[in-house]
Design a protein that fits this description.
- With about 325 residues, the protein is α/β, with parallel strands linked by helices.
- It has helices spanning about 30-40, 55-60, 60-65, 85-95, 110-115, 125-140, 155-170, 190, 200-210, 225-230, 240-245, 255, 265-285, 290, 305-315, 320-335; strands spanning about 1-5, 20, 45, 50, 65-70, 75-80, 100-105, 145-150, 175-180, 215-220, 235-240.
- The protein is built from 16 helices and eleven strands.
- It has an eight-stranded parallel beta barrel with strand order 2-3-6-7-8-9-10-11, surrounded by five helices.
- The protein is globular and about 55 Å long.
- Belongs to the Dus family. DusA subfamily.
- Pfam families: Dus.
Length: about 325
């Protein structure tokens, strides 16, 4: 079932927990990717790609807000800086059944900066507070903020503490902290994920100073062992690129972090469960690579991984029977 109606149920997910989440990632965490990740973990909180208020208010909002019912718990991340626009989009999120709406205060790209979106908003804490208040006044679902620990020229701990304090006073109680500053000039978004050093100590100080707030750590986390370690300090962890490139890591999240007693799904089982979704997408006129591009990492870590990736990223474009090719790739996963 694809959810694309304004009559979608509100709070239709299991109990929302931010103990473990997958980050919003542009061009990656679309609805197909999220459906696949949900097969691996039932409890992980999933985020959409960032959607700008302009896209929702002036474009085809049904297309941007569309998702599969299985994706819950699911959060919509918004990009914007006009309180009334963000409030209107938050209402759309709630009407479409999203479990949370999140404001992006972390993206460093030039394109979003020019529209007063993303990390540049860290220099305007009062405006972010106004945005949060407007959204909170508009909806009953949680309103959260994802931000950096600073930006160039505004990177002291005192300024970070002031930012969180002002936004908290506006009603936000959950902050996801990417533990790097953002360099707004001279670095690409990719470089901004790698060059500024990780400062987990700064995020930990924030948690110590705001014990009453939910502080989620993001940035550089690659293993469940690291998740366990960080959860001693923080209320939750958010994984980004590692969850995408090595998605099978999610298969043990429910057991290790949510005390689930359900059996761990195998790689082959995950692909088999994805097959009907792919078949439905093909029947509606979609292309198989819209989905399979997100699952190439499922083969990470075993001898047949290279062949698995070749089948689903190269051979797939030449195949007259893509589902048969999918089954061939699935055979490589048997016993894995």
């Amino acid at each position: 079932m694809v959810q694309n109606s304004a009559t979608a149920p509100v709070n239709s997910s299991p109990t929302l927990s931010r103990r473990f989440s997958v980050a919003p990632m542009m061009d990656w965490t679309d609805r197909h990717c999220r459906h696949f990740l949900r097969l691996l973990s039932k409890h992980t909180l999933l985020y959409t790609e960032m959607v700008t208020t302009g896209a929702l208010l002036n474009g085809d909002h049904e297309r941007f807000l569309r998702y599969h019912q299985s994706e819950h718990p699911l959060a919509l991340q918004l990009g914007g800086s006009t309180p009334s626009d963000l409030a209107a989009c938050a209402r759309m999120a709630q009407e479409h059944g999203y479990d949370e709406v999140n404001l992006n205060v972390g993206c460093p790209s030039d394109r979003v900066q020019n529209n007063m979106i993303g990390a540049c908003l860290m220099g305007h804490p009062a405006l972010v507070a106004d945005c949060v208040k407007a959204m909170r006044d508009a909806v009953s679902i949680p309103v959260t903020v994802k931000h950096r620990i600073g930006i160039n020229g505004r990177d002291s701990y005192e300024q970070l503490r002031d930012f969180v304090g002002q936004v908290h006073e506006a009603g936000c109680t959950s902050f996801t902290v990417h533990a790097r500053i953002a360099i707004l000039e001279g670095l690409s978004p990719k470089e901004n994920r790698e060059i500024p050093p990780l400062r987990y100590d700064v995020a930990a100080q924030l948690k110590a100073d705001f014990e009453q707030l939910e502080i989620i750590l993001n940035g550089g986390i690659k293993t469940l062992e690291s998740c366990h370690e960080h959860l001693r300090t923080f209320d939750g962890v958010m994984l980004g690129r590692e969850a995408y490139h090595n998605p099978y890591l999610l298969a043990e999240v429910d057991q290790q972090l949510f005390n689930s007693t359900a059996p761990v799904i195998s790689r082959a089982e995950a692909l088999a469960q994805l097959r009907p979704y792919i078949a439905e997408h093909l029947a509606s006129g979609g292309a198989m690579h819209h989905i399979t591009r997100h699952i190439l990492g499922l083969g990470t870590g075993f001898p047949g991984a290279r062949k698995f990736r070749q089948l689903l990223s190269v051979d797939i474009h030449k195949s007259k029977d893509p589902l048969a090719l999918l089954d061939q790739a699935g055979q490589l996963l048997e016993g894995r």
